[in-house]
Amino acid sequence: MRIQLNGQGYEVADGIQTIAHLLEHLNLGQRVVVVEHNRKVLQKEDHPQAVLADGDVVEIVHFVGGG
Fold it and tell me: What is the CATH number of the domain that holds 21?
């Protein structure tokens, strides 16, 4: 399946069916992130139920500390 991830085309590997799976695949599962799925900002508890489909648009923002 193909989605748009942060403005770029992205081929989703087999077995990645939800936003939670995608975050784990991208090694972002333990980080504080904000996810927008098809123009809807998701709460963290919604990630396991947010099912991906071909053509979906996903934006992921993660925070970087610094000084």
Answer: 3.10.20.30
